[in-house]
Automatic annotation (TrEMBL):
Highest taxon above the source species: Eukaryota
Organism: Umbelopsis vinacea
Protein name per Swiss-Prot or TrEMBL: Enoyl reductase (ER) domain-containing protein
UniProt key word Cell cycle: no
One Pfam family per UniProt: ADH_zinc_N_2
Example of a GO MF term: zinc ion binding
Keywords: NADP
The organism's taxonomic lineage, starting at the top: Eukaryota, Fungi, Fungi incertae sedis, Mucoromycota, Mucoromycotina
Length: 338
């Protein structure tokens, strides 16, 4: 059976995305087949599309966020899911993604969809929720009621929008400083709970000094080479820096003298290397409970019907740095028309 999708055959700009089809596979082992009702886009989509790293198939399907209904389950997944369950997932970097009618995904990395969200809003959450949770709670071990003050650089993006809410609404950190530079992003981070807002287009040190309290933990969601040299000047000794991007040139000498720890987060690492995949399903279940309890609010800022034109435009907006929160796309009967 065929599986309608938006695909690309070679690296290039957003215009390489085309309507096509791939085989519809049946799940084996831990896999489940999900019928997608809504998807979202992330910077990783644009990066993979622009370079298309080693891929043996003739076309590739992107997409690392979706909400949908379980269509089929593999034999090892029967205790986790059944046909008809409502789920959300981010998927795996080594497989075709959610820009298709059906997606085959490791069931251990899938979570139950929050009952309080519709498909469209739910699709914004999975990748950024896993990223923020793994970095803050698993790696940096930030605890509930942690007395250390937190700085989030680029807090209005997808990951930042979740990290900000985890910090303020779930972990109860007293001082959470968010960076934002435009009126709409400043309003966005205030809405999500930032206690203080500073401008990442200006030197950070003087702005932190003016706040009058020390910074113990820092989350970098943009350009670590630009911000690590600034952060290590004012972060407390034995502080922690978490980044979703690897620094290429930043000099960490002062950080070493202060015994600063740098944590790097890749949400795909667990599935790619076969390490504790089931933890991701549990994180998504926990995030669903937090959403349903009203502790985490929607991060979907723009919603459109899912089709090739709107997907191309979403990629272009991401590449232009013009997205606040997340763009979501709702699948309908016209999504895969030429």
């Amino acid at each position: 059976m065929s599986n309608q999708a938006i695909v690309f055959a070679e690296a290039g700009p957003a215009s390489v995305l085309k309507v096509g089809s791939i085989p519809r596979e049946s799940p084996t082992g831990w896999d489940i087949l999900v019928k997608n009702f809504a998807v979202s886009v992330n910077p990783v989509d644009t990066k993979v599309r622009s370079v298309n790293p080693g891929w043996s198939q003739s076309v590739r399907v992107l997409g690392y966020d979706a909400a949908g209904i379980v269509e089929e389950v593999g034999p090892k997944v029967t205790d986790l899911f059944k046909k008809g369950d409502h789920v959300w997932y981010a998927g795996l970097s080594t497989r075709n993604g959610s820009n298709s009618e059906f997606t085959l995904v490791d069931g251990r990395t899938v979570g139950k969809k929050p009952t309080s969200l519709d498909w469209t809003v739910a699709a914004a959450f999975p990748l950024v929720s896993l990223t923020a949770y793994e970095l803050m709670i698993e790696k940096m071990a930030i605890q509930k009621g942690d007395p250390g003050n937190l700085l989030i650089v680029n807090a209005a993006g997808g990951v930042g929008s979740i990290a900000l809410q985890l910090a303020t609404k779930v972990l109860g950190i007293k001082n959470v400083v968010a960076t934002a530079s435009r009126t709409e992003t400043i309003d966005w981070v205030k809405k999500l709970g930032a206690t203080h807002v500073i401008n990442h287009r200006e030197p950070l040190g003087p702005q932190i000094e003016a706040l009058g309290f020390p910074i113990k933990n820092v989350l970098l969601f943009f350009d670590p080479d630009a911000y690590i040299p600034q952060v290590i000047q004012f972060i407390q000794p034995f502080g922690k820096i978490g980044s979703i991007l690897a620094p290429q040139k930043a000099n960490f000498l002062t950080g070493h003298r202060k015994s600063i720890t740098l944590y790097l987060e890749s949400m795909f690492a667990k599935s790619e290397f076969g390490v504790d995949e089931a933890s991701q399903g549990k994180i998504l279940d926990e995030m669903a409970d937090l959403v349903d309890a009203g502790l985490i609010q929607s991060i979907a800022s723009e919603a459109y019907p899912y089709n090739v034109e709107n997907l191309q435009n979403a990629h272009k907006k991401l590449e232009a740095g013009a997205v606040v929160g997340k763009i979501v796309l709702t699948v309908d009967e016209n999504s895969f028309k030429q």
